Amino acid sequence: MSGRLPLLVFTDLDGTLLDHETYDWSPARPALDRLAGIGAGVILASSKTAAEIAPLRDELGLSDWPAIVENGCGLLEAGAPGDDDGDATEYQRLRTILHELPTGFTGFGDMDAADIARLTGLPADAARRAGQRRFSEPGTWTGTEVGLAAFLDAARANGIHARRGGRFLTLSFGGTKADRMDEVITRYRPGMTVALGDAPNDVEMLQRADRGIIVANPASDPLPELDDEADGRITRTTRPGPEGWAEAMLALQDKLNHHEDTGHDG
Ligand SMILES: [Mg+2]
């Protein structure tokens, strides 16, 4: 491609580009096709593993772009297969420390694929890929609230960060979707950036982009109002999941085209 990349879109998956219940993305297809038509890039950014994202990225026709995996703890490079023997040193170090912490946390590494399938609602094969981790450990807390505070204190003292996103408590050595977003922006230098997400772990990404779009998710409490919503830099969709995604991205592209056609700015 010659010239400057016009637009780079960063998108969360579950509850944003994918339907929260069915994982269907087809309602977003018209908007994705239109983005491809103008040469825009789409960067998938998710708590999913490289092994989970790679086949989905293929299906979406987005394998020419890197993807942000494991909630920003790592990148899956453009064209790279997710099922390769990626370096899991960081994950192994994390698991070693977790064994020393107060009990009550059950991580994916403590579960088999059937357990992960039950917990996530993913089909068996997808659950197996969700368990192929390189950077971070999602899991559930089964102890008391008091015990959780003690666990989190001990984790922090060992350099471990904890985040709640969607259904899980996820532990890692840090790195956010926004950190990886910075890395990708530096690489591609797009004319404009847009981010879409539905949950607290997307907020930094929404704030970092030129335009942020909060996709409605009726299955969760709505995100509290963000500062940038007052001036319209961050907006909300009315429809959930891929339908909201398409609604927002088609409207944004209409608006950008209109500004180009008329020469108006802002
Ligand atoms: Mg989500």
Write up this protein.
The protein is of the alpha/beta class. It folds into 2 domains: 8-81 and 176-262, HAD superfamily/HAD-like (Rossmann fold); 89-172, 2-Layer Sandwich (Threonyl-tRNA Synthetase, Chain A, domain 2). Helices cover 36% and strands 19% of the residues. It has helices at 29-37, 50-59, 89-98, 113-120, 124-130, 145-157, 177-188, 203-208, 241-262, and strands spanning 8-11, 41-44, 67-69, 74-76, 105-107, 136-141, 161-165, 168-172, 193-197, 211-216, 234-240. It has a 5-stranded parallel sheet, with helices on both faces. A 4-stranded antiparallel sheet has the order 5-6-8-7. The protein starts with 7 loop residues before the first strand and ends with a helix. 43% of the residues are buried. Residues 12, 14-16, 166, 198-199 line the site of magnesium ion (MG).
Give short descriptive properties of this protein.
binds magnesium ion; globular; 9 helices; 5-stranded parallel sheet; Rossmann fold; Threonyl-tRNA Synthetase, Chain A, domain 2; hydrolase; 4-stranded antiparallel sheet; 2 domains; 19% strand; alpha/beta; 36% helix; 266 residues
Shape: globular
> What would the average pLDDT be, to the nearest integer?
92
**pLDDT < 50 runs, ≥5 residues:** none
* Name of the CATH superfamily of the largest domain: HAD superfamily/HAD-like
How would a crystallographer describe the biggest sheet? 5 strands, parallel
Name the beta content range.
Answer: 15-25%
How many separate helices? 9
Bound molecules: magnesium ion
Please give the CATH architecture of the largest domain: 3-Layer(aba) Sandwich
Task: Please give the oligomerization state of what you see.
Answer: single chain
Residue share in helix: 25-40%
CATH topology (fold) name of the largest domain:
Rossmann fold
Helix and strand content put the structural class at: alpha/beta
Strands ordered across the widest β-sheet: 2-1-9-10-11
User: What's the SSE pattern?
Assistant: EHEHEEHEHHEHEEHEHEEH
Q: How far do the termini sit from each other?
A: 27 Å
InterPro entries: HAD-like_sf, HAD-SF-IIB-MPGP, HAD_sf
GO molecular function, one term: magnesium ion binding
Organism: Pelagovum pacificum
GO cellular component, one term: cytosol
